[in-house]
Amino acid sequence: MITLPGNPKSTQNIYRFAGRIMYMNKVGKELKESYQWEAKSQWKKEPTKGDIGVRIHLFFGDKRKRDIDNFNKLILDSLSGIVWEDDVQIQSLFISKHYDKENPRAEVVII
User: Fold this and answer.
1) Identity of the highest mean pLDDT range in 8-12, 73-77, 91-95
2) Best CA proximity match to 96, nearest among 87, 106, 88, 104
3) Which domain covers residue 75, as residue numbers?
4) pTM for the predicted model, two decimal places
């Protein structure tokens, strides 16, 4: 399991469009780099090869309403090349959201 600390961020907060081109803003780039450092410190194996399933548990520090499908892109992209070779390997994805005021985070498990 990989634990990524802090409130998970929605793609609406980190990606922008310039015409048809999507790019990551400064906040998104910093968060992605932070997630990568966390993953490297926790994942001591080689990147997983072959087809995988991934379970993501999102723990938010407040009870605001959120669309669950807006939180996986940055997490999956950040772990590519570290936990798995490429996110194209992911054949199934399970996402759940929870409330934890004291310890907001995302937990990622390969299944």
Assistant:
1) 91-95
2) 106
3) 2-110
4) 0.90
